[in-house]
Design goal:
This protein has about 500 residues and is of the alpha/beta class. It is built from 16 helices and 15 strands. The chain is elongated and about 90 Å long. The model has no long low-confidence stretch (mean pLDDT about 95). It binds one RNA strand of 75 nucleotides through strand 3, helix 1, helix 5, strand 9 and helix 7.
Length: about 500
Amino acid sequence: MALRVYNTLSARKEEFVPLEPGKVKMYVCGVTVYDHCHIGHARANVVFDVIYRYLRYRGMDVTYVRNYTDIDDKIINRANREGVPFHEISERFIREFDRDMEQLGLLLPNVQPKATEHVGEIISLVQELIDKGFAYQAGGDVYFCVERFDPYLKLSKRSLEEMQAGARIDVDERKRHPMDFALWKEAKPGEPFWESPWGRGRPGWHIECSAMSMKYLGETFDIHGGGKDLIFPHHENEIAQSEAATGRRFVKYWLHNGFVNINSEKMSKSLGNFFTIKEVLDKYDSEVLRFFLLSAHYRSPLDFSDQNLDEAEAGLARIYKALAGIEEVLAGETPDSVEKITPVSMKEAERELHEKSGSIRERFKEAMDDDFNTAQAFGNVFDLVRSINRVLVESTEKSGFIKALLADSRDKIRGIGGVLGILTSEPVAYLERIRGRKVADLPISVDEIERLIAERTAARKSKDFKRSDEIRDALLARNIVVLDGPQGTTWKVK
RNA sequence: GGCGGCGUAGCCAAGUGGUAAGGCAGAGGUCUGCAAAACCUUUAUUCAGCGGUUCAAAUCCGCUCGCCGCCUCCA
């Protein structure tokens, strides 16, 4: 079965055929480093991280490039506000970005180029556009001439007339057409600058991505990704600059992720309705956030709320609990491969698990091959989790076959988790980590809880259920739920 | 104003022509000293509404209502 991806350019799902068999060249727009990253940035980066992982899982050799735009008006504005050099701002937020992405468990791209380290390439590209008549100098600025590039707006599927009809576009008499955009900007006094054939200035926004993507991936490459809000103008302008310069198709597949919403409204800086990654990770485990971000299809809007995060936490815990249950049964054993064992007979639940475990990889591939349908993939995983739980409870005698079957299921779930960047922890450790995080917010210590539970266990032993229930109620009143099991009593935070 | 998207159970969310995945929450049962957890069963004759095409539609077409996005920096 073939991988199919939704291409913004054609507005339909297409079979994914890399330009060079077995090799994928992928560029994703990173961030302009002038502020902290919010959950919207987290989504974009997690989504493309999963796409990167999945392509590799599918056996492709992927070259993944993600840039830092480290020179831009916003960076300069912030630097002026704080009275520091612009690179102090960009360096600070590159560090912040790197830390956020590391905490989110992202794989590192192969190349993470910075705009300021590619000014030479940018200048050459601008010069080429001027030489070919697609750009013109106006004072110390250089503009791209949109009317000269016929396919302009093919990605966002609009026309120049439509764009101007209701739009508020800054009138700049130096531009030949109101939609012309800057490739190079003249430096105002006090602003950072590079020497160029047009005087001292800096790159415009957009040109850095054309220059860097083509430098590392070639004039034509497979995948270019980013948030939906980059379709216009950023990606549209990248197409114009790149294709005008090379005369060749720039990108084969354009992939765009949907927004994170707050109360159905786009999370954005200007609305002020955003949460930074750091804030959310103070409250939720990074795997919970990843699981949440992947619980909807990447192109759909995703509503961010505490309730939704709590539900994600509960869902992820369900998977981890099943894995913990398997570890408990195996008790460190490594059973033989399940294929090598022929059971004498199978109970209904075992037969079901055998079948579901046997088909899970195929179903995962099917879901992911359909435009990276992670939500569907989770459905399949939960389906398997239910079968695991059933066997854990119903098959009281854990034969070698059952152990092998459980170990096999565990390995497959972890394998899938690896592609999605979740389920990377030891189950018990994860569950304790989550619990510890919650208990830290309660006015009770782990020591005290365990002391009370020990007291209750003693009471139960002597059949003093009144005292035992008193303790349980007292703990419950402080949000601690007591769980009695065959192996003894455990507890969790409500 | 122009262009585009979305509307599936209490909530979240898959499903683009063949008769509604999954998660959370809820109810009943098994288990338990009683609970909880886990498991089992159960919760949408129906996919915003109204028409149309078809043997067959949540899925295709038209209209209406509601929500959102882009057109300005934005993942």
